[in-house]
Amino acid sequence: MLNRLEMLRIFCTAAEARNFKEAAQHLGISPQVVTRAIQTLEHQLGELLFHRNTRQCRITREGERLAQIARQGLEGIDCLFQRPDNHGTPQVEGVVRLTAPEAIGQTSLVHSLARLRQHYPKLHFELLLEDNETNAVDEQIDIGIRHGLIRDSRFVARQVAEVQFFMVAAPSLLAQCGVPDSLAALQQQPVVGTIDPRTGKPWPWFFRHEAQWIPRALAFISNSTQAECAAVLAGLGFAQLPGFIAIPHLQSGALVEVLPDLAPTPWALSVYRPQRSPVPARIRVVYDWLISDFANHAFFPAKP
Questions:
Q1: What is the pLDDT along the chain (304 residues), one digit of tens a residue?
Q2: Residue 304: inside a domain, yes or no?
Q3: The CATH number of the domain where 153 resides is what?
Q4: 131 and 245 in contact (C-beta within 8 Å)?
Q5: How far apart are CA 259 and CA 6, in angstroms?
Q6: What is the pTM of this model?
Q7: Range of the domain at 106
Q8: In 3D, which of 300, 270, 268 has the Cα closest to residue 287?
Q9: For residues 250 and 247, what is the distance between their CA atoms, to the nearest angstrom?
Q10: Cα distance between residue 201 and residue 215, in whole Å
Q11: Do 234 and 179 lie in a common domain?
């Protein structure tokens, strides 16, 4: 049975989320628990807090009033359990271990963390760069950034952006081989790629309608998307690259997109953390910061 404090915390999270499912993911609980908490509050208060139907969930005017009051109360209670500094301000300090794909980690993530540390100079970061999925538990990861489906139910994840995929080649290679007008024509050209460590085979290329193709004979292959990008820039072959790698080179003209009509549906880019309780202040601050920072798309330039 949830107490009133727990129900108010769930309610405030739901008030900021798009729906109850998103609130549940943020809190690491089931959507049913969120629904029951809201229903119990509505019964106790005698007020409808959300207008909801099968298509949407929208907070009521009375719900907005309660959320404003409840947030102030919760912040006051949280302050009681945080260690204050000499000025009475709760401290956010310590080490936060993060993981991200190499290209995102070296640019967007590092810049974001540098700006955050201006506000919290006692935060320290350890970053593990891996293009493949990291074992967050074994590596003692606090927060991660990944594109694609996050299947592990032990994680609380929030989608912050979408990642497009592009089939690209260097202008020099196109001048030599010509621009392919079909997938069959592309498959006759040299390609470059990366290795999927789970299978030991090249990562498949993805196309619309969930079609895939696994290249069999590659002109160049490595275990790094950055090396794959370097190879395609050097004219070694065609490649399929995620937007956070490809777009800057497309904008500069160093790469050219081919067969855009075959591009797959964009993948979700998510910030996640293991479902640990309680969540230390340092992890909560970094997690919420990255969600807000990446959701504004400032680090993901538009397709040229």
A1: 678 888 998 998 888 887 888 888 878 888 899 999 999 999 999 999 998 876 678 889 899 889 888 887 887 777 666 555 555 445 788 889 999 988 888 878 999 999 999 999 989 999 988 876 666 666 678 899 988 777 666 778 888 888 899 999 999 999 999 999 999 999 999 999 998 877 888 989 999 888 899 888 899 999 888 899 999 999 999 999 998 899 999 999 999 999 999 999 988 888 988 766 667 888 889 999 999 888 875 455 555 5
A2: no
A3: 3.40.190.10
A4: no
A5: 52
A6: 0.64
A7: 94-162+267-295
A8: 270
A9: 5
A10: 9
A11: yes
The dihedral sign for the CA sequence 32, 38, 41, 43: negative
Same domain, 257 and 184: yes
User: How far apart (Å, rounded) are the C-alpha atoms in residues 244 and 251?
Assistant: 12
Domain tally for the chain?
A: 3
Name residues whose C-beta falls within 8 Å of residue 285's C-beta, 6 or more positions apart in sequence: 92, 116, 120, 123
Those residues whose C-beta lies under 8 Å from the C-beta of residue 148, and which sit 6 or more positions away, are: 267, 268
Q: Which two tokens stand for residue 56?
A: 């949407």
Structure tokens at 134: 């990291």
> In angstroms, rounded to a whole number, what is the distance separating the alpha carbons of residues 290 and 161?
12
- Per DSSP, the three-state class of 249 is helix
What b/e sequence results for 90-103 when a residue is b if at least 16 CB atoms lie within 10 Å of its CB, and e otherwise? eebeeebbbbbbeb
Q: CB–CB of 10/37 below 8 Å?
A: yes
Helix (H, G, I), strand (E, B) or coil at 294: helix
CA distance 2 to 290: 30
Q: Do the domain assignments include residue 126?
A: yes
